[in-house]
Amino acid sequence: MQSRSRRELITGRITAAPQSAGASSHLASLVVHARPDELGAVRAALTEMRGVEIHAESAAGKMVITLETANDHEIVESMGAIGELPGVLSTALVYQHSAPHERS
């Protein structure tokens, strides 16, 4: 499995889905900051996105979410899509982990 740096992930320098012999699971935690008056619309849009789970939110517009994807490229794509949602001010990657699926 090819190692990727956090900087590559954040800056979007990962341009192609990695080719690997086995399937893997990638989990990322983000803080999303939205305009408080558009929090409901942002929440609704996030709940429609595949692999997104909202864990906490504040009236000030901050949300803690997780992304579960098949590869690091999908994390970058999802972060970009979230950042482009109307009402979103910023997204911040807090944690990212990847692990191969266990075979039974």
Question: What does this 3D model show about the protein?
Answer:
- With 104 residues, the protein is an alpha+beta fold.
- It has a domain at 37-95: Alpha-Beta Plaits.
- It is 27% helix and 37% strand.
- It is built from 3 helices and 4 strands; from the N terminus they run H-E-H-E-E-H-E.
- It has helices at residues 6-11, 39-48, 72-83; strands spanning 24-34, 52-57, 62-69, 88-100.
- A 4-stranded antiparallel beta sheet has the order 2-3-1-4, with helices on one face.
- Strand 2 and strand 3 form a beta hairpin.
- The chain is globular and about 40 Å long.
- The two termini are 20 Å apart.
- The mean pLDDT is 84.
How are the SSEs ordered, and which strands pair?
Elements: H1 6-11, E1 24-34, H2 39-48, E2 52-57, E3 62-69, H3 72-83, E4 88-100
Antiparallel strand pairs: 1-3, 1-4, 2-3
CA-based shape: globular
**Strand neighbour order, sheet with most strands:** 2-3-1-4
CATH topology of the domain at 37-95: Alpha-Beta Plaits
Radius of gyration: 14 Å
Q: What portion of residues is helical?
A: 25-40%
Q: What is the count of helical runs?
A: 3
Find the structural class using helix and strand composition.
Answer: alpha+beta
Average residue pLDDT: 84
The major β-sheet equals:
4 strands, antiparallel
Low-confidence stretches: none
The CATH top-level class label of the domain at 37-95: Alpha Beta
Reported CATH architecture of the domain at 37-95: 2-Layer Sandwich
Distance between the amino and carboxyl termini? 20 Å
Proportion in β-strands: 35-45%
